[in-house]
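User: For my dataset I need records formatted as: sequence, then C-alpha cells, nothing else. Please produce one.
Assistant:
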Amino acid sequence: MKSKLLTIDEVATYLRINRFTAYRMATRGELPGIKIARQWRFRDKDLERWLDQKSKKKQVGGSK
C-alpha cells in the first residue's frame, strides 16, 4: 500500500495539536518529516510508527 503524504495542517489536525506546535516539533526533528520546496511533508506510515514508539516508551518508562 502506498504511503500518503500529509501537510503540516493535516498532521496538526491528526495529532490534535496546534499547527505551530507541529511546525516547531518538525523543525526540531521531533516529528518524522521532510522538507520539500520549503514545505513540510509527512508520510502517514512514519507518523504511525512514531506514535507507536512514543506509546511503547511511555509504557516502559511508566512501569519503573
